[in-house]
Amino acid sequence: MAATRIRFAQGSYCGSYSGNFSGGREFVLGLARGQTLTTQNTGSGNQYSIVVNGPTGRINARKTSNSSLSFSIPTTGDYYIYMRSTSPYNSVEFCAY
């Protein structure tokens, strides 16, 4: 399955996705060096197996709450985010500051 590109509405720092990613889903975001990417579980299930890969390789997460992770972006480019969920239907919000 092809990665789902997340686009932010004009003037917004965030975008979201709702759907089935219990079997795994890949998202792609265009990010700039120095930004902080956050992922926030906004659905009922737990998200797990969250992996972020960018132009220079894998980026490690910092847990900021029970339902949120943050990632420091080292270089400009497309970043691929793979995640799975414990429920068939879930929602996630991506923000970049």
Provide a quick synopsis of the model.
Helices cover 0% and strands 59% of the residues.
Describe it.
This protein is an all-beta fold. It is 0% helix and 59% strand. Strands 1-3-9-5-6 form a five-stranded mixed β-sheet, with no helix packed on it. It is globular, with a radius of gyration of 12 Å.
Task: Please supply descriptive tags for the structure shown above.
97 residues, mainly beta, 5-stranded mixed beta sheet, single chain, 5-stranded antiparallel beta sheet, 59% strand
Spatial extent as radius of gyration:
12 Å
Strand content: over 45%
Strand order in the sheet with the most strands: 1-3-9-5-6
Quaternary structure of the protein: single chain
Helix content: under 10%
Mean pLDDT: 89
First-to-last CA distance: 28 Å
Tally the helices: what do you get? 0
Which helices and strands occur, and which strands form pairs?
Elements: E1 4-5, E2 14-19, E3 25-31, E4 36-41, E5 47-54, E6 57-59, E7 62-65, E8 68-72, E9 77-85, E10 90-96
Parallel strand pairs: 1-3
Antiparallel strand pairs: 2-10, 3-9, 4-8, 4-10, 5-6, 5-9, 7-8
